[in-house]
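Predict structure. Input: Actin-related protein 5, 667 residues.
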Amino acid sequence: MEVFGLKDLKTVPDIFHPYTDLLRTSGTPIVIDNGSYQCRVGWASAQKPNLIFKNVLAKPRKERGKKVTELQVGNDITNMEAVRLQLKSQFDRNVVTHYDVQEQIFDYSFSHLSINTEQSVNHPILLTEAFLNPNYCRQFMSELLFECYQVPAVCYGVDCLFSYQKNNPAAQYGLVVGCGYHCIHIIPIVDFKPDYSRSRRIDIGGFHVVNYLYRLLQLKYPAHFAAITPSRAEELIHEHSRIAIDYKEEVNKWADLDYYNKNVRRIQLPFNITTPALTPEQQLARRKELAKKLVEMNARKREERLAEEEEQLNQLLAIQEMVEFNDAEKNIQEALKSFELKDVNDLIKSINQLRSKIEKTKQKICGANVVTDTIATEEPKLKIMKEMPVPKKDEDMKKWISDLREKRQRILDKRSARKQRKQDMAKRRTAASWERMRIISQLAGNKKDKRDDDFGMRDEDWDVYKVINKDGGDSDSEEEQEKLIELEEVLRQYDPVFSENSNEQELNPEEAHQLHFGTEHIRAPEVLFQPSMIGVSQAGIAETIEYILKQFNEETATNLVSNIFITGGCGNLPGLKDRLRKELMEIRPFQSMFNISEASNLMLDSWFGAKEMALSDDFAKLSISVNEYEEKGMEYFKEHFASNVFVPSPSAIPVEESPQTSQTPVS
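Output follows.
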């Protein structure tokens, strides 16, 4: 069966694109598709975005004694999981709210476009924003662009509407399904204009699909909790997941074992191969080597100590010679004082002690070589049972070891069976507990008279408890435990691959680190159609489309479903188009017609649509200049097909201050 590996792709840092004289002097617009998953930045004259990176930044914690760490943005973060807890985004769902992070993203984008004009970006900006973006958020974005970067003009638009305009420039009616990272927007197009009041948002997106799969796999494989990461869950969604056409029907198929084995995908997790245990010969050689090193180290220490003691002895003997030759009393006292000796008697005593120490040290050094071999070659004594004679031939040895392993396994199986039976008897309504109650009731019914039955006078009377609690306890396992210990000692000595925790049925390391990717590959994407699976009390895509269509008359609804347009990253999930076709067939009247299409490039068509607008002749008219920004306010922008609707914020109502009345303090 095929096993799929994880790519664990590392991002490649973005290059710094050349800032040519033509770009500098022509005032070419910069198109920024500011998505909550990816940011796509490029010159309007480019064939494709110059920069595509994840719209996050990481600020690693400053370690004591080190320099200030630099911010990492987008593709500069080569290992996303290493800084997962330090990741920051400027978005709250799909709305920009953290403008300090947004400023860092702009700095990264403009610096990699190599714009080097001092304190300004002398190029118009076309920037995408959230559908029905609040004026409060837009005014901070305009302030950032005009005040901080000194841009000459800004134009705002909605990403999914740019994508629709690129693929359906002449369509009068349509229904846009914009599948984003944090939410899905369904926008009806009526008479070439978006119907904002009848549009709807679902708070489910690609992030929720990935996060749901991440939690499912961690719950299913708690042993691989650390190996299952959001990045790997995202890779599984991109490479192995799809949307089921009929979710319930496909889930029921997985109950069949043959279908499961045929369709399950085994995902190989990375793992480190553990080194096998040392054979008895290797262990013996290692013991010899360690013993040799230990003896050499002790001998070296003894030799150093012997040299110090001999030097000290020579100095004391020199003082003794001074005493014998009647040297000056003053010199003798100074010499004794230097060795902390009181008189000549202490000197003689110290000399004798040193000579004794030196003699013992020399004896230890001489006997060290003899002890080395006995330490290195000493083997643990093993008491082998009389009924297990050790064979001499290799073939007989293999069969003998195999028999020992089988005996050990039978003992372990009996133990596990007793343990399981004991657990079953503790539970209610199990076969073991019913059997125990049946035996107790029979024993109670056998004795009808109340006379003294002399129970316990014979040893056989106590066997009744063994009948009641058959194979349920550990009272008869002392002999079994001794036998198990002896078997393990013999196996440990003669079986080089034996381990106390070994089991013949144990999976090899590769199989032990595999994920069985079964129903999860359709279960996680199903949240787009059933948000209740993750606790979100909202309608799915199909139900929301049905709700929107009911707000129009039949003619308009028919025109809308004749041009259903899918765009956004989640549209890349296989089966989305077929699932929508099935759902619409159930929603729409009998034999009614509808058509579903998708963007030619689900991820980049929003940038390409914005690029076409930036190169159009009307771009200057649709952008707000610095003068208009200063005159009409920070929240102002100009409307066009792909933009939001401009609704000025209501002016604050002045509150008249009530006249203050003088109050006489109560005495």
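The radius of gyration is 42 Å.
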